Amino acid sequence: MNWIELKLQENINDLMDKFNEFHDSCIIECSYITGMYVDEKKKMGQDSKNSIIRLVFQSQICDPIEICFESIKEINIHTYDNYEYFNNICDATFFIENGLIYWANSSEWSINKENKEISYIICKKAKYRNI
Hints:
By secondary structure, this protein is mostly beta strands. It contains one helix and nine strands.
């Protein structure tokens, strides 16, 4: 399947509609490339443009999707104790502001409100595909 870029809020709104606002969905897979490296002279460096996190979502309502977030500025992936909590997503926040893309697994999350029990990603680019 082809990737669909999420460059405009309209693109994000379309995805939110297609994926039912992430209601009754879950993250089933996570892959993260940090952008860190060690070169041939053993010098360590970092290229944030090469930082990527890919999340695969399944839903009780919709077909699965994969979202690729690129040029990561900040991430927090929170996993609940599987014996005490059900790690599903009821709703999500997904928007563009000041050239950055924000996604969180709760509509209660905001930029100014720190909550480490909510998974969130802040990045420069994002795209998705149906899988």
